[in-house]
Every structure is written in C-alpha cells, then in structure tokens.
C-alpha cells in the first residue's frame, strides 16, 4: 500500500515537473480551463482506463521508473545548488531526460500523462500498474 502511494505520488510529481510549455503545446486555450465536477467523471475515468493496452501500461511502468530515477537525481542535485541560473539549468536538463524516458518507452507525453491521471483516479488501474515488473 505504501509503495503504491509513493509510486502514484511520484507519477503526480512527474506531471508537475514537466514544463507547462512542453505539455501545453498541443492544448487549446479552452482545454486549459478548469472543468466543472460532474458525477459521471469517475465513471469516465474508469472507462478510459480500460482503453489502455497492456503494452501501454508496460511502457508506462518502464517510463515511470526512469522518470522517478531522474526525479530523485534532480532532488539530490538541487539540494546542493544555490545559484538560481544553475538550478534552472539543472531542472531543464532533468525535464528533457524525463521526456526522453517517456518517449524512449514508446509513449507520447500526452499518453503518459493520461495514464498517470487515470491511475491516480482508478485504484484498480493503479494496482495493475504496480504489479508490472
């Protein structure tokens, strides 16, 4: 249970680490607006989770592991930096490494983020991903 929580937290942190300019390249202005809550939203998340193939989930798990590794290295590096420009450079480098990890696993950033969001809202999907070795 704790491992799954840490993994899901890592996935969410990864989403937050990706630069908005990179993840928003394909977004339209309307899609950036907050969506109102609707009772069917949870059912929609579960339905969309069923649309992920086993291959995509395997790729996601592989990418997530590499992204987590980069994120941990980033945290270590940032703890010793004082210069804001150096911090920004290191963060940008880590962002590019995380994006490369996702793309090298065969996923787009958008698909990786879709799976990550679905796993955060669908415990069954999160469990399935956590079982992938």
UniProtKB/TrEMBL annotation:
Residues 27-51 are annotated as: Disordered. Pfam families: DUF4168. Keywords: Signal. Residues 41-51 have a biased composition (Low complexity). InterPro entries: DUF4168 (IPR025433). Residues 53-129 form the DUF4168 domain. Residues 27-36 have a biased composition (Polar residues). Residues 1-24 form the signal peptide. This is DUF4168 domain-containing protein. It comes from Microbulbifer rhizosphaerae.
